[in-house]
Amino acid sequence: MKPFAFALLSLMLAAVVWAAPPADLAQRVEAARTQIGVPGMAIAIVEDDRVTFVKGFGVKALGKPDRVGAGDQELLDEHDELGCTAAPAGGLAVSANDMARWLLIQLDGGKLPGGSGQLFSQAAHAQMWQPVVVQPIAERPPAVRATQPSFSNYALGWDLEDYRGMARSSVD
């Protein structure tokens, strides 16, 4: 998968998280994925304490018929470029469904869904979201220049940027 293309696609779709996903979201994602050239991906949107959209798009690997599903967990090959890059950072194998559950826990300050306990403290939650590294901002191509952030930071597991003046967080 092309990491920059994935990040670019997530920025292009950032506006949809402000409201219920539009009816044509899947078609728009598929068109953008195809245009950018990403073989496959999955998206999960969490809003108002619930998962409002989760779906897989494309294929797991070029030239192979296996489709990406929202519940797929892909292990990284430690010998390919992505695996070598992610391994020192503690690469994870998670599905879009797993990530949606994690987002629900994050948005509720570490509380487990259904009120069944606390995964981490409020202090740990606050620390996770504090910027740790200021990241350089590369100039975006003309087609998506409107998504150019004015700041970009890395927190503990989160990329923190702005999108048209609104704070936006993501996990790559």
Description:
The chain has 172 residues and is of the alpha+beta class. It has one domain. Helix content is 27%, strand content 19%. It has 5 helices and 6 strands; from the N terminus they run ααββαααββββ. The strands form 2 sheets. It has a 4-stranded antiparallel β-sheet, with no helix packed on it. Strands 1-2 form a two-stranded antiparallel sheet. A hairpin with a 2-residue loop joins strand 1 (40-47) and strand 2 (50-58). Residues 1-17 have low confidence and may be disordered.
Helix content: 25-40%
Q: Please state the CA-atom Rg, rounded to the nearest Å.
A: 16 Å
Cα(first) to Cα(last) distance is 11 Å
Number of domains: 1
Helix/strand-derived category reads alpha+beta
Could you provide a short overview of the structure?
The chain has 172 residues and is of the alpha+beta class. The protein has helices at residues 3-12, 25-36, 81-86, 96-107, 122-128, and strands at 40-47, 50-58, 133-134, 152-154, 159-163, 166-170. The relative contact order is 0.12.
Give a quick set of tags describing it.
single chain; 172 residues; alpha+beta; four-stranded antiparallel beta sheet; two-stranded antiparallel ribbon; 5 helices; 6 strands; 19% strand
Topology:
Elements: H1 3-12, H2 25-36, E1 40-47, E2 50-58, H3 81-86, H4 96-107, H5 122-128, E3 133-134, E4 152-154, E5 159-163, E6 166-170
Antiparallel strand pairs: 1-2, 3-4, 4-5, 5-6
